[in-house]
Amino acid sequence: MEDLEISERKTPADHSAMDDFPPYHFRCPISMEFMKDPVTISTGVTYERNNIEKWFFSYKKKTCPATMQSVENFDMIPNHTLKRLIVAWQTKEDAKKAICSTSSTPRPSNKHDEIQAHLNTILSSPFKVNSIKKLRSIIEIDDETKNDFIRSNGVEVLVQILDQILLESSDFTTFRACEEALCILHQLPILEEGKTFKLLSKQESTRSMAIMLQRGSAEARLHTITIFKKMAKTQYDWSFVVQDQGIDFFKSLLELVSDEICSKASSCALEVLIEILTASKKNRLRAIEAGAVCVLIELLPDSNRSKCEKMLQVIKLLCECAEGRQALVEHGLGIVSISKKMLHVSNAATKIGVKIIWLICNFHPTERVLEEMLICGPVKKLLALLHMDGRSSTKDKVVKIFKMHGNSWKRYPCFPCNLKDYLGLVNDPR
């Protein structure tokens, strides 16, 4: 009965995850089938008699299959108490199924039994990775199986696995199980009022995922950033993750942004960055400290339309801080990279680019910066926008920029003289 005593020492979280499952100690650890003739061996683990006899006497094994402990005493003691519990549980479940068949509860999928069997194996067996892989192949079938998995408390089970990498005793096998768990979790819907969101947004879970974002395989990092992207579309508060992980969190996001192989991971990381930076100035300062401005400026020239717009949006958010503007103007390609994307990629990119130039002109208008804008192209692009028909907030910003610095630029021979009257510029009396 030692295995029954162990089950009673499980945490409340373990019990809540198992409320709707067949108790794992009712199944043989070898076959994962309900035991009909349970026997306990010297290590205290209970097995179906036929299975453990085959293990010892047919396969000539001298270890306990579940614990891998060496076994010298091959005596088997019938576990009558467990057998009575199994029979009682099966009787109770048969009655519950009869009631459920007449209720309006969602019908389980045709993979329901397989899902529960694999969840039980994950809870009870030290060999979790293969069971999670099998579960993953089932979950990928359709939305019905995903919903059945959630109703079966599958998310609770996988979150428990995630949390295990926070333990000092976690090993490579635990890490691999965590990676496989993320393979399933990233496929699930994450809605703000849903159970999946509530479990994944717990501090332990977000800390585990942040660790996987830094140390996981390429596939695990993609799955983690996909989950973070879904969480970013809710009202999730990122302050704990940022405070807990510091600039390392932003460095891991920037590494994904720089990923030239997996464009999906890069795009997701940019979307997560936008949400985090929009939330608070402190977050922007952490990102700047992690080198975000430099990384984005160097990636910007080769970016496609979608990534370019996202990168410009991140740069714009960073330039709302003095430290971000300073980093941009000090980078040799900062101003010219922004300029080249204006009027070249999309209306959205042009609009964001003008906002960035406006922030620099308004808050960081050193003589060197203004001269660089005239020489490297931004002023030429702003002039082109000024000649476009109609009025817009972008064009209004352009007019304000010229009114602020037109007197500086008009001293250069390349500045069009006919714009002076249009902008209401006058000779500087000084």
Automatic annotation (TrEMBL):
EC main group: transferase
SMART domains from the UniProt entry: Ubox (SM00504)
Record GO terms (molecular function): ubiquitin protein ligase activity
Pathway entry: Protein modification; protein ubiquitination
Reaction equation(s) it catalyzes: S-ubiquitinyl-[E2 ubiquitin-conjugating enzyme]-L-cysteine + [acceptor protein]-L-lysine = [E2 ubiquitin-conjugating enzyme]-L-cysteine + N(6)-ubiquitinyl-[acceptor protein]-L-lysine
Annotated ranges, domain U-box: 21-96
UniProt KW keywords: Transferase, Ubl conjugation pathway
Pfam family, one: ARM_PUB
Biological processes per GO annotation: protein ubiquitination
The UniProt record lists the keyword Transferase: yes
EC number(s) per entry: 2.3.2.27
Keyword Transferase belongs to the record: yes
Domain of life: Eukaryota
Functional note: Functions as an E3 ubiquitin ligase.
Name of the protein this chain belongs to: U-box domain-containing protein
Organism in which the protein naturally occurs: Pyrus ussuriensis x Pyrus communis
Phylogenetic placement of the source organism: Eukaryota, Viridiplantae, Streptophyta, Embryophyta, Tracheophyta
